[in-house]
Amino acid sequence: MAELLRLPAEKLYEEELLELKKHDSGTVPNGWKLSPKSVLTFIAGGKAGALEITPKYIGSRRLIEMAIASLMTDRALLLIGEPGTAKSMLSELLAAGIHADSGKVIQGTAGTTEDQVKYSWNYAMLLANGPTREALVKSPIFRAMETGTIARFEEISRCASEVQDALISILSEKTISIPELDEDVSAVRGFSVIGTANTRDRGVNEMSAALKRRFNILVLPTPSDMETEVNIVRKRVAELSAQHQLHADPPAAELIERVVTIFRELRSGMSLDRKEKLKSPSGVISTAEAISLLTNSMALSGSFGSGVITEEDIAAGLQGTIVKDEEKDQLVWKEYLENVMKKKGSEWRKLYLACSELNQR
Q1: Closest CA to 223 of 283, 279, 290
Q2: Which of 244, 228, 91 is nearest to 155 (CA)?
Q3: 162-181 pLDDT, tens per residue?
Q4: Is 198 helix (H, G, I), strand (E, B) or coil?
Q5: Is 124 exposed, middle or buried (0-12, 13-18, 19+ CB in 10 A)?
Q6: Which of 39, 124, 211, 347 lies at a C-alpha separation of 20 to 30 Å from 299?
Q7: CA quadruple 48, 50, 55, 61: dihedral positive or negative?
Q8: pTM, full prediction
Q9: How confident is the model at residue 117 (pLDDT cuts 50, 70, 90)?
C-alpha cells in the first residue's frame, strides 16, 4: 500500500485520541467524541493515563480554551491572524479532537463558487432523471450539517462577497434550502464551522459585518517572544524531518536562533537591540517560513551534503525566502546584511559571507 504524503490529524495522533477517550472523565457534549478538557489536553499537551500527550499548538492555553468554548455554543468560530500563525493547524486540531474528523474542508480562493459552499449536481444524472437526492453533490458544509460535525472554511476573505454571503443563512438558520427538491436540510447537533482569515488579505474581499456577527472571532498572535518562536520552529522541524526521512542532523540551536532572529528583525522592521530601523521585504516572513527554510536546508544537506546543516545551506534558503521581488527585496536584504548582520560579531561571520555571496549573483 502506498504511503500517504500527509495524514490528517485524527490519523496522525490516533493513539492519543483513543487513550484520551478511554480516560475521559468529563462531560462530553452532544455529538462530540471527547469532553472539552480532553480536547484541550489533545491540543495543548498533558497526560492520558500513562501516555504523554504531545503539545501540538504552542501558544496561549487560554486562547485554545476560548476556541473550544465557542464551539460548544451554536456560534461558528473564526480564527484570524498574520500568515504563519498556525490558524489552519489549530482549525484541524480542533476538528480532530472534537469529532475525530478534520477532512470536511473548503479552501477559499478567488475561484470558489456558491455551489462549493452549499451543493451542486451530478449533471449526467440530473439530465437523465431530473433533480433527485442521488444526483445531489454535497459540499463539505452540507455533509457536516448532516453528520453533526465541523466543517473548515480556509481563507474566507479570499472568496468573493456572494460566496461569503452564502454562509450567512447557513450560520443563522442552520439549514440549507434545496428548492429543486422542495426541501430543507437542517443541521444535526454538533455541527459548526471553523473559518480562517488572513489579516494580510483584508483588502481582497472584506468580510461583511453581517457575516462577522455570525462568528466568535479569535485573533492568533505571532509568537510574542524569541524563546517561544524558537521552540515552535525546533519542534516542527523535528516532526517534519521524521515524517519526510530527511537523513540529516537537526539544525544546531544557534542556527535556529539566528534564522529566527533574522525573521523577527525583518518582520518588525527593527533590530532586536532596537538600535537599527530596517526595511521589511515584500513577502511574508513568518514562523511557518522559518520552519520551511530549515526543513529544506535539512533536505539539501541530507541529499547533497554531509548531513550536517551548514551556513551555506541556510544562506540558500534565506535568499529564496526573503528575495521574492528581485528589485526591491534584493536591496532590502543587502541593507540588512551590511547594516545589521555584518555587525553581529564573529559567530555570524560565516552566515554573513555565505548570504553576501549569493545576494551578489
Answers
A1: 290
A2: 91
A3: 899 999 989 999 999 999 99
A4: strand
A5: exposed
A6: 347
A7: positive
A8: 0.89
A9: very high
Q: What are the Cα distances from residue 241, in Å, to 16, 37, 55, 77, 298?
A: 21, 30, 17, 32, 8
C-alpha span between 109 and 87 (Å, rounded): 16
- Cell numbers placing 360: 551578489
The residue extents of the domains of the chain are 9-220, 226-359
As a CATH number, domain 9-220 is 3.40.50.300
Q: Please tell me the distance from the alpha carbon of residue 181 to that of residue 211, in angstroms, as a whole number.
A: 27
What are the strands, taking DSSP E only, across the chain? Answer: 46-48, 51-53, 76-81, 105-107, 119-121, 136-138, 150-154, 175-178, 183-186, 192-198, 215-220
Contact yes or no for 83/263 (Cβ under 8 A):
no
CA separation (Å) from 145 to 92, 160, 164, 212, 354? 17, 23, 18, 20, 54
Residue entry with cell 528581485: 326
